[in-house]
Each structure stands twice: as structure tokens, then as C-alpha cells.
Amino acid sequence: MKLTRPLAALALLVATAFPALAADAVYPPGLRLGMVPLVGLSTAKTFPGFESEDGSVKVLITELPPAAYGEVVGAFNANPAGNNGVKPDKIETPAGLAYFTTESGKAGTTPVKRYSMIVPGAGFSGYVAVQVPENASKIYTDEAVRQMFATATTRKEVSADEQLGLMPFKITDLAGFKDIRTLVPGSSLILADGNESSGYESKPFMILGLIGSTPQQADDRARFAQEAALQIPGVRESRVTMSEPIRINGQPGFETRIDGVSGKDKTPVTVVQWIRFGGGTSLRIIASAPRDQWPDAFTRFRAVRDGIQPKG
After folding, report:
1. pTM above 0.85, yes or no
2. How many CA atoms lie within 13 A of 87 on its CB side?
3. pLDDT reading at 6 higher than 60
4. Strand (E) positions, the chain?
5. DSSP per residue, 21-47
6. 3-state SS assignment for residue 311
7. Closest Cα to residue 14, out of 130, 133, 145, 149?
């Protein structure tokens, strides 16, 4: 494709002068990883990151578990040449030493370049995935993407108001929980007495999130709720102690409790799962506490549950 003079000038500007490096880093709402977007990219409307005006160039930014970065470093050291012709590279960033790859692929029938980068964070690993269609690669070059990667930085905290504001419902009572962490922006978060560094299992915590289609028939809901409770990650030796239909803020719901163990120390825990059934999506709440802290924790869990209201 032949570039017009204005586009050719912009390509030269991005590849050489790169004025975006002088700008401030932009953090997608709810995330601790940010960077300076390339010229022509703005905050994405449907995912955390940036995109071009026509949506063809995408920069997805997200957070992964803290161990993910170490796994990538280990793989790099074990095989610096990479696999299947994809050679990993590394670059210094304000967030720390980052590792990234570049490869060619297709999005449907459109040839694209894909770039992936992982950086260390305090209690998490930052991950960035970039997709550039072939017809934009003369503007968004390998070097331009590399320079954008070089601006990756992290912030220590995301305010509670910012994280809560992303959720599709209001939480009017936090019941004393101080640590608030987004799991999926606008979809799920954790409220905890512990934190990522010390671990969550030894103290009460709650996970609030939306789930997709759920059964509409009462009998099917009972089966669905019990199966979901027994598959809660991190809880082992699970045993259902109670499972019954309830009303949650006037809507049909289901409460299921299980006993089990959690964490590397095999802490005995009691877990309650509430599902508030809705139309397109349902609200799922998972709340866990060490068994010796259960009575007080359960009172707090209910306060949070009953304080969840629709935004209006």
C-alpha cells in the first residue's frame, strides 16, 4: 500500500522523533501497569489498553499472577534461542527488566504482527499484547512498539474508589475490608484482610464477580451451585455442609457452604458461596475465612452481600 505524504510523515515521526516518549504514562482503569501509548492510540473502549481510531491496532494490558514473570525468565534462560522461530528479547523499563517476543500471524484473514511483553510488578506480573495489521506496520513499526514497551511502568496502588467505580454495581458496605484488588476490570474484585504479599488464605476475604448464563429452573440451580462451590480454586478436601435456595435483595439466589483446607499450610477454612441469579448475568460471591474466625467473618460477609445495589 502506497502511503500518502501525511501518513509517510507520521511514520517517520513515530519511528525517529517519537514524541510520545515525552508524555506521561497512562494506566488503564483498575490496573497497576501503564505505559506511554504510541501516537494515534487512545484508551480502548471495550478492553483495558489502547487502540487506534479504527480499532485495528490493539494494545491489551493486564495483570497476571506474580509467578508468571519468573516462569518466563526461567524459560528464557533455559532456551535463549526461543521456539518455532520466535526469539525472545529483553528490554529495560521503569518497571524492571522486561521480556518480549515478536511474531507474524493472522487475525482471520488479515496478516498481523503480534508483540507480547511481560514485566515484573509488586505482587503481580504485568502483561502487554499488541496486534498491528500489516497495512499499519509502516507506521507502527517494530522499533516504535519496542520504544512503547520501554515506557512500561507500575504504580503501587489503585485507589479503592477507582476499582469500585468500574464494577457494574455499587458496594455500599465494605465491612472493614481494607485491601481491595481488581481481578478482572469491571467484572470481579477481591476484598481482603490480608494482601498479595502475605497471602489471603489466613484471613477473611471475599471475591465478587459476574458470571454468564446460569440455570433458570430451581432444581438445576441447586446442582449448578453445588458443582460451582466444589470447584472453587485453592480449596482442597472440600465437603458441602449446606446448600439451599434463598432470596438475596429480593432476587432468587442460592447459598452453599463448604469446609475444606486452603493454602500451603492447609489452613482449615469455611467457605460460603452466594449466587444471585439474574437474566443475562448473575452475581457470584465467594467468601472464605479460617474456621476459628468464621462467626465474626460471616457477619461481615453478609453485610457486604446485602449492601450490593444496582447502579442507577
Report:
1. no
2. 3
3. no
4. 33-34, 41-43, 49-52, 58-64, 89-93, 96-107, 110-120, 125-133, 153-154, 169-171, 179-184, 188-192, 205-211, 235-248, 251-262, 267-276, 282-290, 308-310
5. GGSPPBPPTT-SEEB-PPTTEEE-SSS
6. coil
7. 145
